Amino acid sequence: MTTASTAAGRTQTSGPETADVVVVGAGFSGLYALYRLRGLNLKVVCFEAGDGVGGTWYWNRYPGARVDIESMQYSYSFDDDLQQEWRWPEYFSPQADLEDYANHVTDRFGLRDLIRFNARVNRLRYDERAGRWDVSTERGDRVIARYVIAASGALDATNIPDFPGLESFRGEWHHTSQWPKEGVNFEGKRVGLIGTGSTGVQATTAIGKTAGHLYVFQRTPAYSLPANNRPLPADYELDWKSHYAERRSVMHANFALGYLPVQQHGSVFDYTPEARTQILEQAWQQRNGLLFLRTFTDTMLSLEANEIVAEFIRGKIREIVKDPETAELLCPKTYPVGTKRICMDTGYFETFNNPNVTLVDVKSNPITEITPSGLRTTAGEYDLDILILATGFDAVTGSLTRMNITGVGGVDLREKWAERPTNFLGYMVAGFPNLFMIHGPGSPGVLAQMITGGEKQVDWVTGVITDLDRNGYASIDTTQEAEQDWGAEMAEMAAKTLYQHANSWYVGANIPGKPRYFMIYIGGFDQYQKRCDEQVGKGYEGFVLARNEVRAGDEVPTGDEVPAGDEQRPA
Ligand SMILES: Cc1cc2nc3c(=O)[nH]c(=O)nc-3n(C[C@H](O)[C@H](O)[C@H](O)COP(=O)(O)OP(=O)(O)OC[C@H]3O[C@@H](n4cnc5c(N)ncnc54)[C@H](O)[C@@H]3O)c2cc1C
Questions:
Q1: Does the Cβ of 502 fall within 6 Å of ligand 1?
Q2: pLDDT of 101-111, one tens digit each?
Q3: Residue in 362, 364, 392 with CA at minimum distance from that of residue 192
Q4: DSSP readout, 85-134?
Q5: Tens digit of pLDDT for each residue in 494-537?
Q6: 99 CB less than 6 Å from ligand 1?
Q7: Atom 16 of ligand 1 has which residue's CA nearest to it?
Q8: 47 CA to middle of ligand 1, Å?
Q9: Which of 498, 388, 451 is nearest to 161 (CA)?
Q10: How crowded is the C-beta side of 307, counted as CA atoms within 13 Å?
Q11: Is the CB–ligand 1 distance for residue 69 below 6 Å?
């Protein structure tokens, strides 16, 4: 270990690499964070577990993987040249186009050299004496940083249920979010697919076209709306490109960060049954699930109103699916529409009219085990060559709790969140100073369009970092009181809605042992943004700012070398 004096007279030590900010994750949020932070002349290191950029759109290569918000909207808004020049071939982009876009953005803005690939962060330890985060990766990197931005994804931590016998299966099996890059050949194969959420709906539609026989094992049917995906017409693209500025500003002020060109209606009960069907029919053609749920103001507030919308969708399923028994099985009846992630499809229900596709009800006859030759339920056995787990994610908190994060006093984030994930404004956890979360619990995250949501959250965080530096603050933390208040505010809003009526991943119900808690801020992104800005406007109310003489860019002693008396801790 060597020491030297800087011009400012501070002791400099050589040791682990230092950075102003470590960004975890090179998905759309992480990439935008790199762009913004580099613009602030901060030294940034990004660790990415994969060997490429794109996050969700790097990992989820299963057949049919596709965004369910139109690409003219689900794309970056921060650079007009980019949005004018980039061409989306389809209304709803497939995975490959989104991955291409992520790569294009990375190279266009020169971000690649900031990213260390194949570098999964497996330890994030706050060093109180140094006032720094000590970040380590599985492959042995170590960086000491003042700030960490965890852009590690709300839908990143793979959920592989503990099916007895899975390892004994002699065929090939894949989780949809860990899909092999070389693809999987389904021709003439007997394929089993478990899970009928968003991913299962997309994969079924695609795999049903090529598999010898596809068995879809369904526990809970999905409400799915038609995306009616097709090539993007030139005039539609031109129309968007000539109105991007106005439309983006509409989106930025919208509750779901979406652009809604149709009129919103009042209560479903303000209309006659014929009129409401007509309105729903119009919304059905709109190609936006999040906005469909807001067609009437009370869909997500009243069980009776919701049931009318749900029954409209069931009517569509019964029209499409020819076999009445299969149609009934595909009709969701046990939870209100929208309380689980709404799906979008192009031909999902039609797939069950194909003779090579069989729906298997594993609610009535649960899966008992995976066998070497297939899958067994309480009702029978299915011989399979390929098994697909479309079983989703340890959503919203999983990528954070799997990172081994410890804060002030060595408190483990998993212990802190044992009962529920607490934080303030979705950004900061008390006792974990200078650690910001993007799309984490407590934010609107998955209930809004997430590229724009990521941009707005990153803008807020980089605004805070700039403020701290400008005003000579070294760290920012929050308090347990602020966390409790935020939790109460979120719970009060959620209690007025129907979201708690479903065993969804929104409440952690898909993961055994995960605390049941509605993790998402439900008040809309517009309201959320206002609340976050208010707290800053009130002099960072609910936060704790601490000063010392260290500024971003300064070399500082790290870890055990911090001289006695130089400790800093939040006030
Ligand atoms: C199948 C699917 C369809 C979706 N469709 C839509 C949609 O239609 N509309 C919408 O708005 N959103 C959709 N989403 C949500 C999607 O996740 C977001 O839109 C967006 O891509 C999130 O970007 P992100 O950068 O925040 O997170 P991610 O894209 O999840 O990126 C997180 C990155 O962090 C990395 N990472 C995680 N942990 C670590 C670690 N410990 N160390 C290093 N790296 C780590 C991961 O490898 C990943 O690359 C979908 C998600 C899925 C899975």
A1: no
A2: 999 999 999 99
A3: 362
A4: H---SBSS-BHHHHHHHHHHHHHHTT-GGGEESS--EEEEEEETTTTEEE
A5: 999 898 788 888 889 899 889 888 999 999 999 999 999 999 99
A6: no
A7: 56
A8: 14
A9: 388
A10: 5
A11: yes
Q: Which residues pair with 216 in a beta bridge?
A: 193, 359
- In the numeric block, the tokens 């483990």 are attached to 412
Query: How many whole angstroms separate alpha carbon 37 and alpha carbon 136?
Result: 21
Strands (E), 289-385: 343-345, 357-361, 367-371, 374-377, 381-383
Closest Cα to atom 38 of ligand 1: 152
121 touches ligand 1 (CB under 6 Å): yes
Characterize the bridge pairing of strands 115-116 and 44-47.
parallel
Mean predicted confidence (pLDDT) in 264-282: 93
Q: Which two tokens stand for residue 241?
A: 């490109």
> 42: which 2 tokens?
């901060």
Measured distance CA(344)–CA(227) in Å, rounded: 5
Instruction: Report the run of H or E that residue 190 belongs to, with start and end.
Output: strand 190-194
- Does ligand 1 lie within 6 Å of residue 120's CB atom? yes
422/535 Cα distance (integer angstroms): 17
Which atom of ligand 1 lies closest to the CA of 28? 25
Tokens of 471: 């005003």
Residue 63 token pair? 């057949």
pLDDT value at residue 385: 98
- Residue of the nearest CA to atom 18 in ligand 1? 450
Specify whether the CB–CB gap between 95 and 57 falls below 8 A: yes
Half-sphere exposure of 205 (CA within 13 A, CB side): 21
How is residue 420 written in tokens? 């529920």
User: Is residue 555 scored above 90 in pLDDT?
Assistant: no
The residue with tokens 């479309």 is 390
User: What spacing in Å lies between the alpha carbon of 108 and ligand 1's midpoint?
Assistant: 21
Exposed (0-12), middle (13-18) or buried (19+): which is 252, by Cβ within 10 Å? middle
Tell me which of 31, 32, 56, 59 to substitute to probe ligand 1's pocket, judged by most ligand atoms within 8 Å of the beta carbon. 56
**DSSP string computed for 218-255:** ESS---EEE----BPPHHHHHHHHHSHHHHHHHHHTST
Positive or negative, the CA dihedral 468, 474, 476, 480 is negative
